[in-house]
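[Discussion] Sanity-checking designs against the backbone

I'm trying to build intuition for which residues belong where. Below is a structure token string of 464 positions. I'd appreciate it if someone posts a full sequence so I can compare it with mine line by line.
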């Protein structure tokens, strides 16, 4: 019994990152319970875990054991845990589960979580699950699924409290206390007219401080930050961040209240968008995950590597133009990569700042000229500083002062070009409606390599 108690309450602390699946013997105990179909042991081990920890456990289990764990736990399994999984793992589990098991689990979810799980399935599986839900449940989920991907309509929760303005505060409080099926978590009561058009909202703290006989219409506050269901989720996340919102109402094109967005959903959006941008800067598809297959990852990375190969061939062609000079002075070949590498790093720094500023809308046409001028000055300043350093290093290594002057001039030119390329290329791509995070890297690399090689070898050819 001692061993079972320890597994049911795995140790917590920084050394385990609060992840029970990292506890020695924990996953093995779960696998053993699944193999022996010991439901009581499974419940003792898993029932008290947070849904995030359950998701980590599912990812740690062998693939065949994942759906078996869910089926054995039955109604004790919280399908919210599936929202914390990588898309590939989640889809594999859903496809392996019986349809009725998925349907029963979906009924217990908030609408936003149910939509999040459904949207990654193919149309046939999606329709099969929807067809087994009741008409009101199916209609609510289908309405959200009909909105564009990565829109507020896909993220919103359709469970909310909306009441007419003539209700009194006392009626509202009684309604909240006595009515079953209300949202588990909410921060305000929305006030709507007979056609469900939004008049505003009453925060719960104000509701509790107002006399029971007061009508909602007398204490309602017009919502200044109303979200349209078709708004891009990244734009909505920016509004939440800018105005420190906890929740926001979502309306359709007719101004009718159709849902609510809460800060926990927006945190997920911010994380997803930042993750996509970070991956894109490295030439990785935004939806690539650790659980993806070998072939999917290989295909998704091929295009980026192909662009870099083309850029490398262009740089190689520039080098070949100065083949005679390289044969006469071996030092040029030794020093040439330094200029290109320094320019590449400087260009990447500027590009990273520019891409992130464009994503957060901090870089706009109104301040673009000032930012470009600043980056150029930074590039020139760093170019001069490193030019002096490299001139001294080259003179010390080769004893040729003229060679130091050549690499110094090339360093200044390339770092200035890197600064301009790092800011202008993302701006141009953004103007052309091309994601600068995805496309900027190969162009900036090509510019710094070509300019670096051409400047260094060209100046050396003329100088010597």
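Best answer:
Here's mine. Compare freely.
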């Amino acid at each position: 019994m001692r061993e079972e108690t320890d597994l049911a309450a795995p140790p917590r602390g920084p050394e385990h990152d609060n992840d029970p699946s990292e506890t020695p013997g924990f996953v093995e105990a779960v696998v053993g319970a699944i193999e022996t179909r010991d439901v009581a042991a499974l419940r003792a081990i898993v029932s008290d875990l947070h849904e995030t920890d359950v998701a980590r456990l599912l990812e740690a289990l062998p693939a065949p054991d994942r759906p078996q764990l869910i089926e054995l736990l039955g109604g004790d399994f919280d399908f919210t845990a599936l929202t914390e999984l990588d898309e590939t793992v989640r889809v594999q589990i859903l496809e392996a589960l019986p349809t009725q098991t998925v349907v029963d689990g979906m009924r217990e979810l908030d609408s936003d979580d149910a939509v999040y799980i459904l949207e990654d399935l193919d149309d046939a599986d999606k329709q099969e699950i929807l067809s087994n839900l009741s008409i009101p449940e199916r209609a609510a989920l289908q309405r959200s699924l009909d909105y564009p991907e990565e829109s507020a309509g896909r993220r919103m929760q359709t469970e909310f409290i909306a009441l007419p303005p003539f209700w009194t505060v006392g009626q509202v409080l009684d309604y909240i206390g006595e009515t079953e099926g209300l949202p588990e978590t909410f921060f305000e009561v929305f006030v709507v007219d007979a056609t469900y058009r939004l008049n505003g909202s009453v925060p719960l703290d104000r509701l509790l401080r107002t006399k029971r006989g007061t009508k909602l219409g007398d204490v309602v506050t017009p919502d200044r930050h109303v979200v349209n269901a078709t708004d891009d989720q990244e734009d909505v996340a920016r509004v939440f961040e800018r105005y420190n919102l906890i929740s926001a109402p979502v309306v359709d094109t007719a101004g009718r209240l159709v849902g609510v967005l809460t800060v926990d959903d927006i945190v997920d959006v911010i994380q997803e968008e930042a993750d996509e941008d970070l991956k894109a800067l490295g030439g990785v598809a935004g939806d690539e995950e650790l659980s993806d297959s070998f072939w999917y990852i290989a295909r998704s990375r091929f295009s980026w590597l192909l662009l870099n190969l083309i850029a490398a061939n262009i740089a190689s062609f520039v080098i070949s133009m100065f083949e005679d000079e390289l044969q006469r002075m071996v030092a040029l070949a030794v020093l040439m990569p330094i200029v290109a590498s320094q320019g590449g790093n400087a260009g990447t720094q500027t590009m990273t700042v520019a891409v992130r500023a464009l994503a957060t809308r901090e870089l706009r046409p109104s301040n673009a000229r000032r930012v470009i001028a600043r980056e150029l000055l930074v590039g020139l300043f760093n170019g001069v500083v490193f030019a002096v350093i490299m001139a001294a290093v080259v003179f010390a290594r080769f004893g040729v002062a003229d060679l130091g002057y050549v690499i110094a001039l090339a360093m200044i030119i390339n770092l200035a070009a890197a600064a301009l390329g790092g800011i202008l290329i993302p701006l141009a791509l953004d103007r052309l409606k091309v994601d600068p995070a995805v496309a900027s890297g190969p162009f900036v690399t090509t510019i710094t390599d070509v300019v670096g090689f051409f400047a260094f070898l060209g100046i050396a050819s003329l100088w010597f």
